[in-house]
Amino acid sequence: MKKLLKDKRIIVIVLVIVLVLLLIDFNQRMVLLSRLREQEKDLRQRYTLLEATRDTLKTEIANAETEKSVEKWAREEGMMIQEGDVPIVLLPPSAPIPTEDLRPPRIVDEVQKWEIWQELFFGN
């Protein structure tokens, strides 16, 4: 009878240990699942932003390939002209016009260090 009770205790102890190990493993898997779901959420957000950027760039490329935008770039940035246009080139003046300094000259009184200390400690 004692041997049977002893065997039952051993079996119960082994079962408890196995259950604890299974619970620890389950907890680790749940933490991993939570982390992976968070990563999935972040990646989905980044993917959505990248898709929006791709669509915007496709639209810009389509607009840049139109004749109107090519002509606008050629005239404004490329400094090109069409046949029949009269180019006007503005040149800076040959000699800059001197300007007078209309501000009155600034007068600076030199103050000795001992005067500063005297003013600091004794005032007027």
Rg, Å, rounded: 43 Å
Measured between the Cα atoms of the first and last residue, the distance is: 110 Å
Low-confidence stretches: none
Number of strands: 0
Average pLDDT reading: 86
Shape, principal axes of CA atoms: flat
Share in helix: 55-70%
Topology pattern, helix = H, strand = E: HHH
SS field, number of helical segments = 3
Give the strand content. Answer: under 5%
Which structural class do the helices and strands define?
mainly alpha
Largest sheet descriptor? none
Describe this structure in words.
This protein is flat. The protein is built from 3 helices and no strands. The chain has helices at residues 2-64, 67-76, 113-122. With 124 residues, the protein is mostly helical.
Topology:
Layout: H1 2-64, H2 67-76, H3 113-122
Keywords:
124 residues; mainly alpha; 3 helices
Q: Short description, anyone?
A:
The protein is 67% helix and 0% strand. With 124 residues, it is mainly alpha-helical.
